[in-house]
Amino acid sequence: MSEAFPGPHTGPATGHVPVLRLGEVLLVTLQGDLHDSTAQQLQQDLAETISRSGATGVIIDISGVEIVDSFLGRVLAEIAGQTELLAARTVVVGMRPAVAITLVELGLSLPGVHTALSTEVAMELLTRHAPSSRFGGLRQESP
Amino acid sequence: MPEQAEGTAGSPTDEVRDFLRRRREQIAQRWADEPLFRAVFTVSRDEAVEAGKAVVDALAQVADAARVEDPDAAGFTTVREQLARMGAARSRAGLSTAQVSSELAALRPPVENLLVADLPDSPADHARDCVTTLSVLMGTLRVVVMQTALSEGQALIDRQRLQLLEVATPVIKLWDGIVAVPLIGTLDSARSQVVMETLLESIVEQQARYAILDITGVPTVDSLVAQHLMKTVAAARLMGAECIVSGIRPAIAQTMVHLGLDLGTVVTRASLADALGYVLHQLGVGIVNPVANGPVAR
Fold first, then answer.
1. A interface mutation test: which of B194, B199, B239 has the most A CBs within 10 A?
2. What span, in angstroms and rounded, lies between the C-alpha atoms of B230 and B265?
3. Which of A126, B138, B155, B294 supports an S-S bond with A57, CB 3.0-4.6 Å?
4. For position B235, what pLDDT does the model report?
5. Which of residues 185-224 of B touch A (CB under 8 A)?
6. Sorted alphabetically, which CDD domains does this protein's record hold (chain A) (predicted)?
């Protein structure tokens, strides 16, 4: 997508982002600048891993991401949408204040995405079941 | 300084310059009796005379540079601070800008009288030119004082605006994992930006799962303020914290409904206490009254 335009996303493609499996939950940690094609690759990998493993939750840790654009915002929303279709829940963890402000100003408040302050809280959210979610601060009820 | 020939000097500007240098002492003495100098330099008359001399010197320097109409002339820089102090002292005494201005205007007649007395033999049009030049010079002095006073006021306003931004947005830790921001005053874009940033920073710092925005101190809520609130709530949610808006007064609730403002899915409570009670309940924390031994938090 952005190959024609030199910019922060045109560095050497790092290939795959590792997807770690912790029981029923998949953990993805994003670091630094994320190449657009890597983000799309991750989206694809996650869909396949969920359907293969039957995971019930996905945690995306973006505490290492300092710059976010509308593309990455859309990718996050799409990942949440597709995992929902595969009967799993996505929790985005550790968003930095500057990133949150940017997304809100861009008009991307990611309505379908669950959020948590730390991976620990996210694990707690995902391993609990629906009735207890009110204690855990689950921001969006699953449909 | 070349001694000027009696009655037939060069340009009116030079004439005025020479006059100012010659009569420096007398002008300063007369100014010291004017209300402006008397009111500012209350300690001693000598002080007022010295200040007057400094101003006369500055005027002579400006006349020397032939820039009688230029408030930015280099000659004024030496007395700018002193003039600002005088202007500020009069303002503090409760005088309006117009009154200070008229006190400054009162400095002109004594000097003019001296100048006229100094030119008894010169041709009428030359004398008139000299007086006009002096008037222009005194007018410029007035502009300088007013300019200085206004820029002082502007600097004060800027400083206070910055202080207001810092002071008015404290983030309070109410409980482990609960922070609150009491919003006070009108929320404009700059302030809501500061509120949002400090709130989000403290959410990370305190690992707060809940943030309470208390708007008891916000006088009116219009669509702009509601939009700012929604943005803050959305940003906090993205970070994994839930925002509760509290302190919506009955009148404001009514206005918001009339305006058709929708806070959407934002949790709202009437008072900060209610919001705290709600959050404590969500966290599964209860407050127990030791006497009645019953739960208080709802």
1. B239
2. 10
3. A126
4. 92
5. 196-197, 200-201, 203-204, 207-210
6. STAS_RsbR_RsbS_like (cd07041)
